[in-house]
Amino acid sequence: MSVRNRYQCVVDEVAEVREQYGRAPSEVRVVAVSKTVGPDEVADAAAGGAVDFGENRPEQLAARADQFPALRWHFIGNIQSRRIPEIVGASVLIHSLYQLRHAEKIDRAAAAAGKVQDVLIEVNVSGEASKSGATPKEAPGLVRAVAALPHVRVCGLMTMAPQGDAARAEAAFRGLATLADEIRATLAPDEAAAFTELSMGMSEDWPCAIACGATIVRIGRAIFSESFEE
């Protein structure tokens, strides 16, 4: 099966799950995580209808954005301070912000680029030492601090769920959704109106994430790997 066909299958499956939980088409979008593939696979996915793509390395993000300017590029990797101008220059949405010092540098880079940079705050809901992110206790204060920056817009939260444990993954997703509701209630009206996104769920657990309120699912292997099996 081609990348194009696998992408279309994923979109059809996402639509079925979304409808099962009463979610509207506009409420869930698929970000095709293309970090392990070449430009031919990106082009094939785009031919199948993919518009949103995710990259985790600043240099590849910038190169892909130059090569495919009509597509929407998301940064989903670890933020390196010195690469922030590249990330800001190419990203429609940064998913992995969890340090105020990075937010302040994003603000300056966005000002220089003449834009307001959309970001998500990454939260380590599960508490795993191997995962990055603010703690659930830190997240509300961080959201408010970042939202105060003039060239950064906080659009919601992101998390990485524990792998290989469906119950813990569901707990992480539900925890993020609850945290988002609590934070939204504390924001000013314009900030709350922008704070709508929950980026959670990947190839092995996205149906559960949609059930728990995900608005963005980040899917790579199910689209780009011939050997992926659910």
TrEMBL record:
Its cofactor is pyridoxal 5'-phosphate. Residues 23-224 form the Alanine racemase N-terminal domain. It comes from the Bacteria. One of its GO terms (molecular function) is pyridoxal phosphate binding. Keywords: Pyridoxal phosphate. The modification N6-(pyridoxal phosphate)lysine is found at K35. Pyridoxal 5'-phosphate (PLP)-binding protein, which is involved in PLP homeostasis. Belongs to the pyridoxal phosphate-binding protein YggS/PROSC family. This is Pyridoxal phosphate homeostasis protein. It comes from Adlercreutzia mucosicola. The lineage of its organism: Bacteria, Bacillati, Actinomycetota, Coriobacteriia, Eggerthellales.
